[in-house]
Amino acid sequence: MIEIIKGRNPAxxxxxxxxxxxxxxxxxxxxxxMIEARRKVAILARLExxxxxxxxxxxxQPVQSTxxxxxxxxxxxxxxxxxxxxxxxxxxxxxPELRSRILLAARQLNLKDLEDAQLKLLRxxxxxxxxxxxxxxxxxxxGLYSLNYYNF
Length: 152
Hints:
The chain is an alpha+beta fold. The protein has helices at about 1-5, 10-25, 30-45, 85-105, 110-115, 120-135; strands spanning about 45-60, 70-80, 140-150. It contains six helices and three strands. Helix 4 packs across helix 6.
């Protein structure tokens, strides 16, 4: 091997050595994971908003307190564009049941849950209720057009 290198141009030897190093150091990657991540980004870029309704409820009064709370919110869901027609039809079919289940989920909240700035528990409950009610679990996420909280 040394004799072969002696007769060659030093630049050629360096280029060959760099090529060997580069080819041997190519890392492994999970192509399926990369494709799935890209697919999720593409789906999120094409989400449509679906109105899930306005709600107003009085939270149950805790036993140890005389405080009461009233919550008003207007919620929307985000679904993939390809599922929009199916979700619109399902909302017409399951609308009353969905409304009742969202109200029941919201009534499970306590005053401490409403102090969370991102309302994680409320959002999680609504996503779960909608995806359990509508066929195919089409809801990607939810948002709130408005939220009013009165403590009296």
